[in-house]
Structures are given as structure tokens and as C-alpha cells.
Design goal:
heterodimer, A: 426 residues, alpha+beta, Cytochrome Bc1 Complex, Chain A, domain 1, six-stranded mixed beta sheet, five-stranded mixed beta sheet, 11 strands, B: 425 residues, 15 helices, globular
Chain lengths: 426, 425
């Protein structure tokens, strides 16, 4: 990546970051509202981006809004909710063709920034300060469908169930889109209040990536934010749990392939060095096509098509999952555990370690090559209060030693196992 | 060696790529992209899951191949008598993969370092097959699980059920990976037969985009590639009627909300026509039901569709279909309304304002593909076999008119030749 992130405060707990990248033909602006993830507000907050996407005071009609975007050479306006550790993030973003490619020579960045700002800060509210009734009804239904859509992808479903087991009672365990019961209880009042609270109390993170001029966008946002009544709340984060007792569950469904998911606690890796050690360990164990799990569970034993491990740095756990014949569950589980033990005993070559680190370093090299990955990279850095370039990150990865990997493997303790098996759907 | 390089430019984008006809018979397409940090390379053949019946010069008669063999071959090519391609790539750090599609197979990698070594590995392992009865047997379990995974995937099933409803004979309706039963017939000898038939360099292409040294590509090609024999192949022409098999198909799977695929089956043109005219079809699909149309709004406000609603042109060597997908509790209603709107548009033409939106959206889509290393390598790859210049697609979008879009649709599709596929809970 050639350019570094420039970040400044443009209002009370409101930050504008930009990364200038001349090689792209589009620009991308995202606006994030960062707020604590809580069971009481998770669901209603998740509905906010869906209703915001329907229109704003300057363009109240949904069809008209979409037409405007299409005319901007198919600009993409997305509104969604994501979670990072125990933070909930309402993200609204717009990606549009850079001025150089506009047929009429119009300034796209200013138009896009204004539209994004209108969508988030000036929604289409009625005289009671409510969102249109039809938007509430339709988007609440869509939110419920989205919450339930985990079921449509059995791998996603099994992972979600495992998270539920391992994080029961912790903020990390609150679901991204919330809960059906809570969604049904949302009213015009509670929804409007959720939006007002988000605008008043959350941290605002705006990011501009691309070849365009971010200063016009900055001006648009700074002026708008100055007019808001802001009382940002202090962000307090829940400590990571080091270990928890093993929980196991099974569920039957009318399917032909079983899904086995195992979650490991890693002893609460909080320092950068601990997190990086866990990334390297997890990649060596099951993160590449030459990893222990790939070579043994898949290639040697032919038990599955995929058997992957993945370290979740925001929650500090490692997930292993695979799709197998129902009757192979025990064989797969014991081989997965045996491979972990082998790594913990130092049963891997220096070459495997070097190759694993070089695979990670190589993938870090691609971060700068797409607008979305540049944005995601720096947003994660901002949320973790550790903004570094992919190059600096690569140097840290290269510094991880054999001892670091062994020590990390020894810390891994099985915390949850979930198995989705065949049969009548429960 | 010095080669003659043809430079192909797009004034509109300010981009270019280079074409080299390598003496081995391989076409090499290279797009260096300034400012980027990664290279993306694809090496592949015009051979996919639909190639189930072929005739080569030697035996002089058509013969049938087991379903899923192209995909099986893709898996097995990664192995050699020494170490697997993945183990070799491990030394360069490249991220390697492969895929089998309906009418092509590709081997690819992306890297930000050690490009020279990785490109050599790519060319080498794809041109050096190694299959034994033991290694072939071992893959049965792995691919068997891949097939099972797709059997449980509602998104995958809804599409193949649709293709089964649309196509009488075209092998595009066959699952890419085959079935557990069909792959049981695959042997090392059969894999060699298919390999020797389709992995002829005259039937292949190498595309590279991003940050790399063009000389390194040519040097690796000189070092690894042997001149290929002449290529002769005849594919069985499937005499596919315009009509569909049935208009409705459904299956029950554990899903939260019913999901649907609607397909309007088109009369196929040549491979190049399907690609070029497919751009006009994309504009039509946008104008038919994208999120700024009246019909989208009506269905959305009635709660019949939601934000998962979308459309695409599904096309390849000898098939083309307009596909619309999403979640709905009333998929029959979506289907009926789309058919009505289809006829309405064909009859009355596309309103100017809607056309402007549709055209600009499609234009923007191709513009965005040109700013990604993967997008450029993939476009070069996809355009090579039909024999179309990649930049032409953007120009077709830019110069389309409502009249030529409607003319094209009238000649290719009709509302009756369509089907609805539904997965219900």
C-alpha cells in the first residue's frame, strides 16, 4: 500500500479517516456508528440501517433514491450492522465511480458524501419523529428473516450454534442481528429512539478510500456533525474470558452431510504478540492447504472436503470446522485433537513454520489492492486501537518463533463442540 | 526469446494489456497494473462439466464420459509423484486454488512476492499429470463430501433444479461435481484420456494481471512448456429445443424462508454472441426488475420480495438464461408479475429514464471490475475462449440503445420459455 491513513477528529467523538489511492477508479466512503453491544439494544439497533436505506428527507422515495444511485454509474449504497468483539457497528457505505469516469464531468464525491450524510443524519421522519410505518413493517419482517437465515447455510448455522454455546451470557455471544422476539417488540417509538440515541451517543468513524478528493467530503460531514447534539458515551470493554468449562451439543436436521464445529479458548490473548502468535499457530494447524488439518483430516484420511481452523482475534477463540459423513464424527474429532497435541509437542518442522508465515505475509500484501479491504483493514485497526500498515503487521508476523507457536498450542483448550447430524429436523 | 507482443488498449479506461502467441501453442494475455501490489494468474482450458460427450481424431466416434470428470481431474492435477502443487506453492507463499465451471477449468494463484517461482509452478504442475489407481481412489471420499455439501446447499439446489426444468438435453443441467455414483466410475486411465484431449495448449490460455514482470512470464513459459500437438476435437452438438421441460419445480430442504430462482431460457448464439449480447441482456434485466423499477417497488411494498432479490445473465458456450433469484413467501406471484412485465417491456419498449439507469449501472459494473487485479485476470480469461476483446464489453454497455436491447430480447427470449424453481422449508 502506498498511502497511509490520515485520521482527524472532525466533531465530538467523530473521526474522519482517509487513504488516498490513485490506482482505483472508484471511491468509497463509509460511515460507522460504534456503540456497545447489549442484548437490550442489539435488535432494534440492527433495524436502524435497514430503515435508513429506504430514503432520507432530501430523497424520501425509495425508488427515486435507487434511481439516483443508478445514475451515478451504479453507485452502491449499503447499510448493515456488524459486530466487533463487544461493539456493535451500524455501517452505511457508498461506492461510486471517480470523477474521471463520469461522462458529464460532474463531481461525484461531493454528491455521494452529501447523500450518505443525509441518509444517516436526516432520515425521512414524520411529524411525530417516526420512520414511515411501511418501512418499519417491511424492514422488521426482513430483519426477522435475516436473523433466521442462519439456517439456510448449514455451516453458518453450526458455527452460530457453537458461538451460542461458548459465549453464553457474555457480550461476545450476542447475535449480530439480534433476536426474533425482540424484533417483534419493536415499535415506531422504540425504533426512532434507537436512531436518536445512536446519533447522540455513538462514536462516529468515517472513512474515505480512493483517488477522489476527501476534503470536500470531510467538509460535508464536519458541518453536519456540528449541528448534532452529541453526548458520546465512554466505551468500556468486557474482559476476554481465558477459559470456560467444555459444553457439548448436538442437533438433528434433514441433511446429508454432518457439520462438526469445535471452539477453543486460547487463554485470552490480549497483547499484540499473543494475538499474532495465535494467528500463526492457527494457520499452521488448519489455515492453509499445507496445514496439519488439511494434510491429515482431508488428504490422508479422506474424511472431508474442508477442515479449517480460524482464529477470531476480536473474541480470542479459535474455531475448527468440517463437513463429514455422520458416522465419521468421532474419527474426525479425535484426529483434530491429536493434531493439536502434535503441534503443542513441537511436532512440526521449521520449514512448515516459515511457509506458514510466508503465506500470511503474502496475503497481507493484497490488502491494499481493493477498496473494501483497505477500508476493512483500517477500520479494524481503529476499533482495536492499533492502527498499523499491513507491512508493519507482516514484520510482526515474521517475528513469531517456534516457541511462540508451541506455547500458544499448549494454551488451546476445547470449550465447545457442536455437531449437526442427520435425521428429522428438530 | 523475444516475442511479438500485441498491445490492446482502452482509451476510455486508460488501461491496456498484451497478447503473446507462444510457440508452444499457448496464448498468453498480460495486464500489468500500476500501483497494485499483487499478481493474479490463471491458467486454464476450455473444458468443463458440460463436456460429457466428445470425439477426438483418433477413435473417430463419440463417446460418453462420466459426469463430474472435469472437476475430478482438476482435484487430481494438484498431485505429482513427488509433492503436491500446494506443497510447492508453500515455498513461495502464494495463495493457490482452482475451479471447474460448466465450460472451463482454471488453476490460479495470487501473490505479492516470489512471482517468478509461482508462475513456474503453475505452468509446470498443470502440464504434468500424475494419476495412479491409489491416488484416484483416495479422492473419492474428499469429492464425495464436496458433493454432499452441495446437496445440502439450498442456493445450489435451487439453481440446478431450475436448469433441470429449463433444459431438455444440454448437459449444463448436470451438477458440476457429478454424483457419488458417477464419480465411482472414474479411473486413472480415463483421467489421462480427458487430460490428453483437453489440456492441449492450443485449447488453453494463461492470463496474468497486477504487479509482475512480463519477461518472467515468458521466461517461465519458455522453460516449462513443450510445443503442443495439433488440436482436434469435436463436441457433441446437443439439439436443445427452445421450449422448457416444465415451468415449475420444487424441493423441500431445511430453510427459514422459501427461496426461488426464475429463469428465462434464451436461444443460444455462438459463444462470442452469448458473451457480447449478454451485456444487452444485463441491461434488459436491470430495466426489468432492478431496485429502481416500478415492479420492484410494488413487490417490495407488498412484502413479496426483500433485499436479497437480484438478477444475472447465466451464459456460456451453448446456453444463455436470464436468472432472477431471492427469498419470497409467494414466489408464484413474483414469477407471474415478472412474466407480465417482461411482455409489457418487449411490447412497449424501455422508458428512456429507466434505460439510462440500467445502462449506467451495467457500465459501472464493468468499470469496477477493471480496478481489481482478480477482476482483470478473470475478464481476460473469460473473454479469451469466445474470442472477444475484454474492453469490448464496456463499449457495448456504453453504446447500447433501448431499441437494440429490445430487438435482441425479442429475438432471443419469450415469457413462456421460462421456469420457476422453489426450495421450501
Amino acid at each position: 500500500m502506498q498511502s497511509k491513513l490520515i485520521r482527524k477528529e472532525i466533531g465530538k467523538a467523530a473521526f474522519m479517516s482517509s487513504v488516498y489511492e490513485s490506482k482505483f477508479k472508484s471511491d468509497r466512503i463509509s460511515l460507522c456508528l460504534v456503540t456497545p453491544l447489549k442484548k437490550e439494544t442489539a435488535t432494534v439497533n440492527a433495524l436502524v440501517p435497514f430503515v435508513l436505506r429506504k430514503g432520507c428527507r432530501s430523497c424520501p422515495d425509495f425508488t427515486e433514491l435507487n434511481r439516483k444511485l443508478a445514475e451515478m454509474y451504479g453507485a452502491i449504497l449499503d447499510a448493515d450492522v456488524v459486530k466487533h468483539a463487544d461493539s456493535q457497528i451500524i455501517e452505511v457505505s457508498i461506492q461510486f465511480a471517480d470523477d474521471r469516469f463520469a461522462i458529464g464531468g460532474e463531481s461525484m464525491a461531493a454528491t455521494a458524501a452529501k447523500l450518505l450524510s443525509d441518509i444517516v443524519f436526516e432520515p425521512n421522519l414524520d411529524e411525530n419523529g417516526h420512520f414511515p410505518e411501511i418501512d418499519l413493517e417491511l424492514e422488521r419482517e426482513y430483519l426477522i428473516d435475516t436473523i433466521e437465515s442462519d439456517l439456510n447455510d448449514k455451516r453458518v448455522y453450526a458455527i452460530s450454534k457453537t458461538f451460542g454455546l461458548v459465549f453464553e451470557g457474555e457480550p461476545f455471544g450476542i447475535k449480530r442481528y439480534g433476536y426474533v422476539e425482540d424484533a417483534k417488540a419493536i415499535t415506531a417509538d422504540s425504533l426512532a429512539k434507537a436512531w436518536r440515541e445512536l446519533i447522540r451517543t455513538s462514536r462516529i468513524e468515517i472513512m474515505f478510500v480512493g483517488p477522489g478528493d476527501s476534503s470536500t467530503a470531510e467538509k460535508v460531514f464536519a458541518e453536519r456533525i456540528a449541528t448534532l447534539e452529541r453526548e458520546p458515551i465512554e466505551e468500556k470493554h468486557a474482559p476476554m474470558v481465558a477459559y470456560s468449562p467444555l459444553k457439548e451439543a448436538e442437533e438433528s436436521m434433514d441433511i446429508v452431510q454432518g457439520k462438526l464445529v469445535m471452539a477453543f479458548r486460547m487463554g485470552a490473548p490480549t497483547t499484540e504478540h499473543e494475538k499474532n502468535s495465535a494467528r500463526v499457530f492457527s494457520a499452521l494447524y488448519g489455515g492453509t492447504a499445507f496445514s496439519k488439518l488439511f494434510l491429515n483430516v482431508r488428504e490422508k484420511m479422506s474424511l472431508c472436503y474442508y477442515a479449517d481452523s480460524h482464529f477470531e482475534r476480536s473474541s480470542g477463540i479459535m474455531l475448527v470446522d468440517c463437513g463429514i459423513e455422520f458416522q465419521n464424527r468421532d474419527a474426525a474429532q479425535s484426529e483434530i485433537l491429536r493434531q493439536l497435541e502434535l503441534v503443542a509437542n513441537g511436532d512440526f518442522t521449521d520449514e512448515e513454520l516459515i511457509d506458514t508465515k510466508s503465506a500470511i505475509v503474502n496475503s497481507l500484501g493484497s490488502v491494499g489492492d481493493s477498496l473494501g479491504s483497505v477500508e476493512g483493514w483500517y477500520l479494524t485497526g481503529i476499533l482495536e486501537d492499533n492502527v498499523i500498515t499491513p507491512k508493519e503487521d507482516a514484520e510482526n508476523i515474521l517475528g513469531i518463533t517456534r516457541e511462540d507457536v508451541i506455547e500458544t498450542a499448549k494454551k488451546a483448550k476445547l470449550a465447545a463442540v457442536f455437531f449437526l447430524k442427520g435425521g428429522e429436523t428438530e | 526469446m523475444n516475442y511479438e507482443m500485441t498491445k490492446i488498449e482502452s482509451k476510455r479506461l486508460g488501461d491496456c494489456y498484451y497478447k503473446v502467441e507462444h510457440p508452444s501453442g499457448l496464448t498468453i494475455l498480460m495486464a500489468p497494473m500500476e500501483g497494485f501490489n499483487t499478481a493474479y494468474a490463471m491458467f486454464g482450458t476450455a473444458y468443463g462439466s458440460i463436456d460429457t460427450c466428445i470425439k477426438t481424431a483418433e477413435n473417430g466416434e463419440f463417446r460418453k464420459l462420466p459426469e463430474g470428470i472435469a472437476h475430478y481431474l482438476e482435484h487430481k492435477l494438484f498431485e505429482s509423484d513427488e509433492c503436491s502443487a500446494f506443497e510447492r506453492y508453500a515455498k513461495t507463499g502464494a495463495n493457490a486454488n482452482a475451479f471447474t465451471a460448466f465450460d472451463r477449468t482454471a488453476y490460479l494463484f495470487s501473490c505479492s512476492d516470489k512471482f517468478e517461482e509461482s508462475i513456474e509452478i503453475l505452468l509446470d504442475f498443470v502440464t504434468h499429470p500424475y494419476f495412479t489407481p491409489e491416488t484416484v481412489a483416495k479422492e473419492q471420499g474428499i469429492i464425495g463430501q464436496e458433493i454432499r455439501m452441495y446437496d445440502d446447499s439450498a442456493d445450489w439446489r435451487v439453481m440446478f433444479n431450475l436448469l433441470g426444468a429449463l433444459y431438455h438435453k444440454n448437459p449444463v443441467k448436470i451438477d458440476i461435481a457429478g454424483t457419488v455414483e458417477s464419480i465411482a466410475q472414474i479411473t486413472a486411465d480415463l483421467l489421462y484420456d480427458c487430460y490428453n484431449t483437453f489440456y492441449n495448449l492450443h485449447n488453453m490460455v494463461l492470463t496474468v494481471a497486477g504487479k509482475f514482470d512480463m519477461d518472467a512470464v515468458l521466461k517461465a513459459a519458455d522453460k516449462v512448456l513443450e510445443p503442443a500437438e495439433d488440436f482436434y476435437l469435436e463436441r457433441a452438438v446437443c439439439d436443445e429445443p427452445d421450449s422448457v421441460v416444465e415451468n415449475y419445480v420444487e424441493q423441500h430442504l431445511p430453510v427459514s424462508v422459501p427461496i426461488f430462482n426464475i429463469g428465462f431460457k434464451g436461444k443460444t448464439g455462438t459463444e462470442a454472441e452469448n458473451l457480447r449480447d449478454g451485456i444487452l441482456d444485463e441491461i434488459f434485466l436491470e430495466a426489468l426488475c432492478d431496485d429502481y423499477t416500478a415492479i420492484y417497488r410494488e413487490l417490495y411494498d407488498e412484502g413479496v420480495i426483500n433485499a436479497t432479490f437480484g438478477s444475472e445473465v447465466f451464459s456460456g458456450r451453448d446456453y444463455i438464461t436470464l436468472m432472477i433469484s431471492g427469498e419470497s413467501r409467494e414466489p408464484e406471484k413474483v414469477y407471474a408479475r415478472l412474466k407480465e412485465e417482461f411482455e409489457h417491456l418487449v411490447e412497449r419498449g424501455i422508458p428512456e429514464d429507466i434505460f439510462a439507469c440500467a445502462q449506467r449501472s451495467v457500465y459501472g459494473h464493468y468499470l469496477r471490475a477493471s480496478e481489481r487485479v482478480t477482476g482483470v485476470a478473470m475478464s481476460l480469461f473469460n473473454c479469451h475462449f469466445p474470442g472477444v476483446d475484454m474492453y469490448e464489453l464496456l463499449e457495448i454497455a456504453a453504446s447500447a440503445t433501448p431499441e437494440n436491447v429490445i430487438e435482441r430480447i425479442k429475438n432471443t427470449y419469450c415469457a413462456e420459455n421460462s421456469a420457476l424453481s422453489v426450495i421450501k422449508p
